[in-house]
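Regression check, glutamic acid case 312:
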Amino acid sequence: MRSKSKVTLGVAAFAVLALTACGGPGGATSTGEPEESGDAGNGAATGEHPYGLEVVESPEFEEGTSMAEFAEAGSITIGTKFDQPLFGLVGPDGNPEGFDVAVGSLIAAELGIPFENIEWEETVSANRETFIENGNVDLVVATYTINDARKEVVDFAGPYYLAGQALMVQSGNPEGITGPEDVEGQAVCSVEGSTPAAHIVEEYGATLQATDAYSNCLDPLRNGQVVAVTTDNVILAGFVDQNPGEFELVAEGETFTEEPYGIGLAKGDDELRAFINDTLEAATADGRMAALWEQTAGAVLPTPEFPAPDRY
Ligand code: GLU
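Current build output:
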């Protein structure tokens, strides 16, 4: 709702979702009727929302809260990645899709905001805090690790997923890299402002080739300018899946950090943080989180146990 560059979404081209049992995309409001019995709880599959979510009709919130503002405006601006398969990837029609997009649309749905009224703003790793601080976005759902340094400037709801840092190399692993110890003094590609970029330099002495988005690391890996790409295991798994035969994860994706994914929001908005944590908790309990996963990242990755929110 605060964005200047508005990307209002039509929902015509969700190829992944066409494979699910969600029915046709595009309705502005929910009927509240589950499409079939045995589906995710709480009326999750309505046949109208592209992720099968029920959009709460006229939700009530205490006056003066951000939730009341969003509900009144009927829109929200969410920052996400645009180049990460499985989590946030823009299709040819300009709409992002993936698990982060689904989680963002879950929160919107609980605020009474239908999918097509969400404005998606691309947030690369380095501009997430700034975009929240400056009000370019209301929320960031973007493979965003919760940590103390970031908590100095923004707040986090969640975590809603636990990832970990890994390494991706050319298929066949020509350099024989077995773990992060092997990249000391070698060129490794990662993204500015990300936790894995800092870690591979500080802990393992790699020479960083930094870029602004992970997809820019693929060509340098293909042509041997770098020996590896490093970031979270699940982001790398998306690139391996998207480029068959080209890349593989070192040690089958073994991780060497913990990257708990949170939803970034303005520092000090404790009511909004509590509301999002309540939403995540309820959606985990009634199966909506699992259903969202299965429609997105679940195409490649096993359904996880979703973590309990950290209500700090
Ligand atoms: N989760 C890590 C981070 O927040 C890496 C992934 C990313 O850059 O989005 O820095």
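Comparison notes: Residues 1-46 have pLDDT under 50 and may be disordered. The chain is about 25% helix and 20% strand. No diff flagged against the previous build.
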